[in-house]
Design brief:
Distance between the termini: 60 Å
Strand content: 5-15%
Helix content: 40-55%
Number of strands: 5
Oligomer: single chain
Number of helices: 15
Length: 351
């Protein structure tokens, strides 16, 4: 029998509408995409509890033993990142309904690491290959800069690359889901300069997972390259004139008129062109962020500056470096001064 505590509702509403036996709901600031992601966690978790005859009152607050048993039951069918999302979703559900999360950080980490190790290798995504400026030049040669859609796509690629942004921040999940309050618009772009007159391209993201107030990303023009984001943006605006409230990379469809640029549209183009570029095995949307990071580090931009540009918080930037050998490789060659800089960043002196 379906539980009255878990009525039928939209996936994004499960976090709030699906209640523990005792609940004091609180307001949430998670993005819709995050709520939908966490909704899967709740669905799988409650199915597990129901199949194992675990009473509703024991679903929340969850005990470390129940959490470990649940995650262990998922190993073999899910990757480590999926298990991490499951844990995050269950934790968020506790927070929303005013329940204490009784799993301490050490237990949390140990349970997740243990479950992740048991995840099958086939479910683990290989590391994304980074975009490079040479690849952007190749895309420049393969895309028609006079075509409204392809001009928008190329501009999105260059801006994402040089801003160290996730592709999803500059695109929309689907055309029908464009929302000016959540997705960047043409009004969100503001060319500027510093006190010495150096040009800067500033983009305001209305909202992000880390901030409901949004974040600002920026990059500088690259006038000597084919991948110059400023030139690409001017060409895009010329081919695709639109109102300030339109999506930043909105393009003019020959029949349907102005439409926002979807992430799927961009990733499809990346996949089709990457097949023609020799030696690239796994080029994805996130490759832009990886490649942009490598680009700045190879141009001797300090680690802390790149970390700020990429909007990494805490120690996640160091973890990011360690997970991408191609980012670290140039710093592990016969350049002792560069290697020392890396050591000083990853292993700061103990006072």
């Amino acid at each position: 029998m379906p539980s009255p505590l878990r009525p039928h509702c939209l996936a994004k509403d499960r976090l709030l509408i699906w209640r523990p036996s005792l609940s004091q709901p609180r307001t949430t600031s998670w993005m819709e995409s995050t709520k939908e992601l966490y909704s899967t966690s709740l669905l799988v978790y409650h199915i597990y509890c129901d199949m194992n005859n675990i009473p509703d009152k024991q679903h929340c607050p969850i005990s470390p033993n129940l959490l470990a048993a649940f995650l262990t039951s998922c190993t073999g069918a899910h990757s480590g990142s999926t298990l991490a999302n499951y844990m995050a979703g269950i934790r968020a559900w506790h927070i929303v309904h005013g329940h204490h999360w009784s799993v301490n950080e050490a237990e949390y980490k140990a349970i997740l690491e243990g479950a992740s190790r048991l995840a099958p290798a086939l479910l683990k995504h290989p590391c994304r290959a980074p975009f490079t400026t040479d690849m952007l030049d190749f895309f420049y040669s393969m895309l028609n800069k006079d075509d409204p859609c392809e001009a928008a796509i190329f501009t999105c690629l260059t801006v994402s690359f040089y801003c160290l942004a996730r592709l999803g921040k500059f695109t929309v999940p689907s055309i029908k889901n464009f929302d000016p309050s959540r997705h960047i618009t043409q009004a969100g772009y503001c060319p500027s300069h510093n006190h010495e007159g150096l040009p800067i391209m500033v983009f305001h993201l209305p909202t992000t997972k880390c901030s409901s107030r949004g974040e600002t990303v920026q990059c500088a023009p690259q006038p000597t390259t084919n991948s110059d984001p400023q030139h690409a943006l001017k060409n895009h605006f010329h081919l695709n004139p639109a109102e300030d409230t339109a999506h930043l990379f909105a393009w003019c469809h020959p029949i349907l008129g102005i439409r926002p640029l979807s992430k799927m549209e961009v990733t499809k183009k990346i996949t089709s062109i990457a097949k023609l570029y020799a030696g690239v095995l796994n080029l994805k949307g996130h490759s832009l962020r990886i490649g942009g990071t490598l680009f700045y580090l190879l141009n001797n931009i300090p680690f802390d500056v790149v970390k700020t540009m990429g909007r990494w918080s805490g120690e996640s930037f160091a973890i990011y470096l360690c997970h991408h050998t191609l980012v670290l490789a140039p710093f592990l060659q016969s350049k002792p001064e560069t290697l020392n800089a890396l050591k000083n960043y990853l292993l700061p002196p103990v006072c």
